[in-house]
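Q: Convert this sequence to structure tokens.
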Amino acid sequence: MGIKGRVDKMVVLACEECKERNYTTVKNKKTNKERMELNKYCPRCQKHTSHKETK
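A:
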């Protein structure tokens, strides 16, 4: 999935501590080959944690 006619694809971000999938975002898979890692707020852990892209 993604935006029609574009290289961007939807990716899911999961919390590193509790493994819950909290966020979705869009990334360009041609320019960013590695998995994304962002610091986001996890409502389950109730704190800011590292979120990594899942399969």
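The two ends are 13 Å apart (CA to CA).
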